[in-house]
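hey can u check if this looks right to u? its 546 residues, i copy pasted from the old doc so theres a chance i mangled smth
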Amino acid sequence: MAKFLSIEAEASQLRVAEIEENGRKNRIRHCFCIQVPKGSVEDGQLRDTRNLAGILRKELSERGIRIKKVFFVVGSTRIASREVRIPLVKKNRIQSIIEANVMDYFPIDISKYVLSYSIIDIEEVQEQPPQYHLMVYAAPRSISRAYGEFAENAGLTMTGINYTGDSIYHSVKGAFSKGVHMLVKIELEFTGITIIRDGELALQRNINYGMDSAVEAVRAFPVLGDRLDTDGALKLLFEKNCFYEALDVNESEEYRKDSQRADEEGRQLADAKAEVTESLRYMIGNISRIMDYYISRNPGAVFDSIYCCGIGGQIRGVMALLGHELGQEVHRIRQLENYQLPDKKENEDLFLYVAILAPGRSGVNLMEEKSSGKKNNEQESLRGAVVVFAIGAVAGLALTGAGFANRIHQQKNYEYLNRRVTEESPVEDIYNAYTEAKSEYKKYKKIYELTNTPNEKLKSFLEEMEQKMPSDITIENFSSTGTEVSFSMRVTGKPEAADTLMQLRTFESLATVTTTGIDQSDDGTVTMTVTCTYEKPAAADENSEQ
């Protein structure tokens, strides 16, 4: 029975499970969460592999876990997925067919991505040949390399990388074998939606809204906690219900009681909880639209259950708010067929570990393959050595057999070459001039790189602002440093503020876009401060020195 570690890296925590594989069943021996420093994981990409590896290595040592084999589960908006149908062929040909037709699925440079797939089912349509119904995934190679560095620094051996949505589906499909069910995975930076019908994957979508907006809203109100950082705000949300049960707080009896309290602190608390509740409007609105979309494509479909997993399951009040707005009860997922956490008490937290219970079950692996390339290189080197040896042997025999006659020929050829060297001697001067010019170019290139700063993106940023931003936005303050640009702007309302932030996140000149919150005036206009970091500037063209 093989044992391995299954790890999911999220923006706020690492989730780790020690799994013992026994045929088609997995036994969970240990599972735990590790808090990670802010910024260590962004959109599924590991930013500080050395520090994270040290944290993981220490935790594994303290728990006495010595397993080295590890399988990672990654969720990222940079990983693209696409439903594909291909003819029914031998399974060992599926990957080559996908690679040959990748440009029809994704507009990407295939050399920078790792492709993998899972078989959803085999479709048999009357009077047509059967087809494979596949879910194809494309992940940037940079993700695989970062996780490889993470595993190496932690002293582990990486055996695979799976996509979060695929891993979740294969964990829960046995429990959802009949009816229509929706699983909502709420994390700090994103929300994943998985709809399963009669045990088969019907729809998967990612939403670029998570609990980060609620965390920022909590931090903005001192009445909820003074000078809280992200971890402190999350801990408060785990321990205290900061939400009303409806986005329209006027529908909430609890809000009416809080807002009518005689003391000022009570009224401030009511306003703060109302703002925290409002911060989830876009996330809940997108979930509702995905449900409506599925029902519109499947007339008569009714959701038999809605379950929640991920960090959203830990936060008090989210289930009640989701249930009210979606018009159906939402529960934390606490039980799955063939899966049980080692401690009955820990089983209450099963919703945190759904994505890492069956990481390799479907065969999806987004790990960059290196072994085959190494093997091919060794084979090519061996072939080259054999060819060189054969040529050398033949040449030696030919030279030996030629004898003195060949020596006369070589002497004449030597004299001819000496004449040619004398005639072509000016070429040496040209070569020396070229070498000197190349050296000077390298010096100037280094000087240019010292002057190349991120602030060079300011012009591109302003041009994008002019092209993409609505004309009714008013910029009130604007400042730019070597690494970021900050400005405050006024828009006509909250929806426009949200649209503006979404547009900013599409700017090619920007790496990140954050806001410290919004202020709404009596006339309905909204003021918000936005901080953006520039994309790193492109280095000087390496090919220009050729």
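The first strand starts at residue 2 and ends at 9.
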